[in-house]
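Long-time lurker. I teach an intro course on protein structure, and each term I like to show students one example going from raw sequence to a predicted 3D structure in token notation. This year I'd like something fresh instead of my usual example. Would anyone be willing to generate the tokens for the chain below so I can use it in lecture? Attribution to the forum is fine with me.
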Amino acid sequence: MKMYSNGVILLIFVALMISVSSGSGLSQYPNVKNAMNQIHITSLYPKNKNGQTYGSAAYATSPETEPDLILATGVDGTEGYLLKKDMDGEQPKTPEEAIAIQNSRSPDGWDIPLYDKDGETVIGVFHVGGK
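-- Reply from a regular --
Happy to contribute to a lecture. Here you go:
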């Protein structure tokens, strides 16, 4: 009888491990995924006085887990941070908007401000695209 109980416990444990590793556990629920991403973000990146996270995007597991201020090197070699919203740019709502945004961009690229980790002080320029 005791052997059967241990077998059932082992079977339940194995089923649980398979469920979790295959993604059919709690992470299938969007609210749980969002909470897990928030925990990941807040534990991985420090925050500045304004509550913005900052650091390298290399550690992010998805665009949602990137810091608010992304580590970058400016055109003159200055190391600083880019606002994620500046990097993401305007997000199209339709395929037509996407084409219009793409066509409106300069073939030489564009510049965005490079900030100190406070997210306020501009310390340089970062060039996106082009030459």
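Some talking points for your students: The chain has one domain: 24-128. DSSP finds four helices and five strands in the chain.
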